[in-house]
Design goal:
four-stranded mixed beta sheet, seven-stranded parallel beta sheet, alpha/beta
């Protein structure tokens, strides 16, 4: 089957969990039930088929280090569940643009020197796809990197809430060059968004009228620190809110829904607390309310989903599918090109895998 060569933009906590996880699960046996993994074999590709071809960041403490060292470097503070040997992949100096906001600039110093030749690196390393892990609010930086990816001829997985895969302009650009894109804004395996969507659909299915709902998230990683700058938060709030409102078949009014990151608590590190309240009316217009608190390590919670997104992207590349890849995007992302209930999204992904996966020889 060959290897899947992946480049990472942004060597933060999410990259750390992904890199650790691919090493941790590299020998996972087909059909074995493993915590955190939805598919040990996806369309003929195992987790061990994924390898890293390039890594890009701007932090002075990370640029120049081997990827295996950079993932444990401050300000990264996620759960270390695996020691990773050196890859021989050095972190390269990337483009900043708007990737470094007011609060992150207080703890991150830009590495000296020019931006690496991103197109040249991607071509030279024969990279199949690029994963975007830039900070929330990196609108211009993301679009700059998308241009490099298109020129280099790679697929693109957009894990942040800058809208690429769902926008017609970018869909057309990827179709024109025959490349696939999966996005936007990664959805964790059992995170606040998917849990909130499940509650909303439970109300729908059981005939309860939803009247009001809220989701307040706090955490201690650099993502939450970055989002203290409220103007960088706009696309994130849109992404998380629409992920939930898309499941409500009637208008409850803008004032009756609040979903979004709320505050930064440093000692939580990469843990996230999500506080949800859902209010509705049941039989006889009697009130029915649910309050729930979810606690997760934020970055590992998304890494298993990205592992599947990588392999779905490879199937798209193998089969020369271009533009926004709707089936994986709908299940893996908060703001895909089209929204469906999650059980339908899962069926669509499984059908996509069966259709485009490599068929084993009898």
């Amino acid at each position: 089957m060959g290897k899947i060569k992946v480049a990472i933009i942004g060597v933060g906590n999410c990259a750390s969990s992904l890199v650790q996880g691919i090493h941790y699960y590299r020998n996972a046996k087909e059909g074995e039930r493993i915590a955190g993994i939805m598919h040990t074999n996806l369309g003929g590709y195992s987790i061990g088929d994924i390898e890293f071809s390039a890594a890009i960041d701007i932090d002075k403490r990370k640029v120049g280090k081997d990827l295996a060292e950079a993932i444990y470097t401050y300000p990264n503070n996620t759960y270390k569940f695996c020691s990773v040997p050196k890859f021989g992949v050095r972190v390269l100096r990337g483009m900043t643009h708007d990737g470094l906001g007011e609060y992150l600039s207080k703890i991150i110093e830009k590495a000296p020197g020019p931006t690496a030749d991103i197109v040249g690196v991607l071509k030279d390393t024969k990279t199949d796809m690029v994963i975007n892990y830039l900070p929330v609010g990196s609108e211009e930086a993301t679009k700059w990197y998308v241009e490099q990816v298109l020129e280099a001829g790679c697929g693109f997985i957009n894990c942040i809430p800058v809208f690429i895969a769902r926008e017609r302009y970018w869909q057309k650009r990827f179709r024109q060059v025959g490349l696939p894109v999966i996005g936007d804004d990664i959805k964790s395996q059992v995170g606040a968004t998917i849990l909130h969507r499940v509650l909303v659909n439970l109300f729908n299915d059981r005939g309860v009228t939803l009247e009001r709902t809220s989701q307040l998230n706090v955490g201690g990683n650099t993502d939450f620190l970055n989002m203290l700058e409220r103007k960088r938060l706009a696309s994130k709030k849109v992404s998380k809110t629409q992920a939930v409102t898309s499941q409500i078949p009637y208008d409850i009014g803008e004032e009756n829904i609040y979903i979004g990151p709320s505050d930064y608590v440093a000692w939580l590190k990469d843990r996230k607390w999500a506080h949800m309240r859902v209010e509705g009316r049941t039989f006889g217009d009697v009130p029915l309310n649910i309050e729930l608190k979810l606690e997760v390590w934020d970055s590992p919670n998304s890494a298993g989903v990205v592992i599947d997104a990588i392999r779905c992207m490879k199937l798209a590349l193998d089969n020369k599918i271009s533009g926004a890849i709707r089936e994986p995007s709908s299940y893996f992302m908060k703001s895909p090109p089209a929204q469906f209930p999650d059980n339908i999204c899962r069926e669509k992904v499984e059908k996509f895998i069966r259709k485009y996966g490599k068929k084993s020889k009898k």
